[in-house]
Amino acid sequence: MKIDWPCIAFVSISLLQDYLWLMNAPRIYYWDADHDKAA
Asked: Where on the tree of life does the source sit, at the highest rank (predicted)?
């Protein structure tokens, strides 16, 4: 059975980037909100 490694790696990296962005997005949003209040 032949495995298409580049394709698997690309999908894995894409999912990982989406996951990291989703984890960081709320932090960035709340930081901006707090920053605006402090200003």
From this structure: Bacteria
- 39: Cβ contacts below 8 Å, ≥ 6 apart: none
Is the model's pTM score more than 0.90? Answer: no
- For 6-31, letters b (16+ CB in 10 Å) and e give eeeeeeeeeeeeeeeeeeeeeeeeee
Q: Which residue has the tokens 């402090």?
A: 38
Tell me the three state secondary structure of residue 32: helix
Query: And the tokens for 1?
Result: 């059975």
* C-alpha distances out from residue 19 to 8, 16, 34, 35, Å: 16, 5, 24, 25
